Amino acid sequence: MKDESGILFVLSGPSGVGKGTVRQRLFEEQTELQYSISMTTRAMRPGEREGVDYFYRSNEEFEQMIANNELLEYAKYVNNYYGTPRAFVEETLAKGKDVFLEIEVQGALQVKNNFPQGVFIFLFPPSLEELKNRIVGRGTETEELVINRLKEARKEIEMMHAYDYVVVNDDVDKAVQRVKSIIQSEHLKRERVEKQYKRILEVE
């Protein structure tokens, strides 16, 4: 039953909720997960490697990929494009490997539009007060930026209905265990298992 295709898992949520921390901890425990490598038009930095840190492309190549619908999502930050290449995700899933994508809410909604068969997980703060404390705790944001991020977070929380699961990040270890449970339960869904058994019955 190893010919089962992989599943795309998308972890998303408002800025400051701890997506990166949960993803890093998860990958320490779930070594078989494949992280979705992003594509960018920014220059390669010292120590970075093609196909490991990012896929590096020119502006023209990236815009051609947008035109050809070859990206599951993309955005532009400080004059550079960033996006998720469809081919890498689909090829990895076809090998039977699960792909994990950690991304902002707007990007996740783009992915859902382009790849609705993915599993979408919303990482939720215990409260807006706690989210504010986490953003302020970074020490990198001005007061105005903190207020703007919280306004944006309120809007993003209202988009929760577009997701399949909601995980409250009140404790990183607990949040990671909840995500692991989601991954396991998705592989045990009747529709997925049924497809495999049908193949076995056909062979017999």
From TrEMBL:
Keyword ATP-binding in record: yes
Ranges for domain Guanylate kinase-like: 6-184
Binding residues for ATP: G13, P14, S15, G16, V17, G18, K19, G20
Keywords annotated in UniProt: ATP-binding, Cytoplasm, Kinase, Nucleotide-binding, Transferase
GO MF: GMP kinase activity
Pfam families: Guanylate_kin
Name of the featured protein: Guanylate kinase
Record organism: Oceanobacillus luteolus
